[in-house]
């Protein structure tokens, strides 16, 4: 009988988690809007994986989450894949070499990741250049709403990481 290693089991669980979060994020009217904005759950989920598993694993799952976002949005395919790849790689490096791995760091990095992804989206894909409208009406509600979900992802992924350790 084939027995999968702890790392393989962990990656399978992460993949299933990303797929379920994709379904939750892109199902219409499933999550309520906060000041007209919906959360970026896939970005927050990928950042929590990067924080707990390191830069390379975070980079690949960040790219996977970004490509899932690209399939459900009107952005050019690969846009969010590249953005999430860079963000998750950076978050993984920060936690590996500079910051502690705890809930406060996760919330801060989750907020920064959603803010950075939204700002890059606004710079490259938005037809409007009104920053005085963008920051209080789009960026802050989206970042706050997404950051509120970060503790759930962090503790869930930490449980996966501790239960399915590398053998």
Jot down its keywords:
0% strand; 167 residues
Distance between the termini: 18 Å
Output the structural class.
mainly alpha
The number of distinct β-strands equals 0
Largest sheet: none
Residue-averaged pLDDT:
92
DSSP helix fraction: over 70%
Poorly predicted parts:
none
Basic shape? globular
Number of helices: 7
Please trace the helix and strand order, writing H or E for each element.
HHHHHHH
Name the beta content range. Answer: under 5%
Q: Rg, please?
A: 16 Å
Please give a structural write-up.
This protein is mainly alpha-helical. The protein has helices at residues 6-26, 41-53, 55-72, 79-97, 103-125, 131-148, 150-163. Helix 2 packs parallel to helix 7 and helix 4 runs antiparallel to helix 5. The longest helix has 23 residues, at 103-125. The chain starts with 5 loop residues before the first helix and ends with a helix. The mean pLDDT is 92.
Secondary structure layout plus pairing:
Layout: H1 6-26, H2 41-53, H3 55-72, H4 79-97, H5 103-125, H6 131-148, H7 150-163
Helix pairs in contact: 1-2, 1-3, 2-3, 2-4, 2-5, 2-7, 3-4, 4-5, 5-6, 5-7
Give a short overview:
By secondary structure, the protein is mainly α.
